[in-house]
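From the pipeline queue, job 12 of 40. The input is one protein chain; the requested action is below.

Action: predict structure.
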Amino acid sequence: MTAPAAPVPRKPARGALPGDPRPQERLARIVRVDHAGEYGAKRIYEGQLAVMGKGPHGRTLRHMAAQEREHLRYFEGQLVARRVRPTALQPLWHVGGWLLGAATALMGERAAMACTVAVEEVIDGHYAAQLDHLGAAESDLEEKILKFQAEEMEHRDIGLANGAEQAPAYPLLSGAIRACTRAAIWVAERV
């Protein structure tokens, strides 16, 4: 009697490295992190509106917040349809997003706009990287991400047009918010 043959190791997908997530896990990460990001964005605008909602930028903030709520609704539906769990850190996003929005708004209108610019520039790169991994079978998701990416760039442009770069300590403020946003993306994909 011969011993059973050893299983043939699976060859990683073309371009994949050992330890990279498989396509289904990558897709789950995309949905999870995008849901978390849109939830955080909604909370940032809620924090800014709590401070600046009755001021000259209130209408602009409400417009951007409405788009973020639309993005969030889409990804909430994707979580359910694809049976993907949300990030376990959503309570942190709830508090942290609101505090970031309120704190930058308390620093002034330009600082609030600097927050928007910093976050949206990171999100632009994040969405672009995701689009590189979506295949033809994910055309609906790809179409939504492209639409949302364009709206995020609209938000960035609104922030720039409203003096974001004139915020006090703009390079420091912007750099800190970018770093936190990148860290939040990394964590939300995994936790």
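Job complete. Residues 1-13 have pLDDT under 50 and may be disordered.
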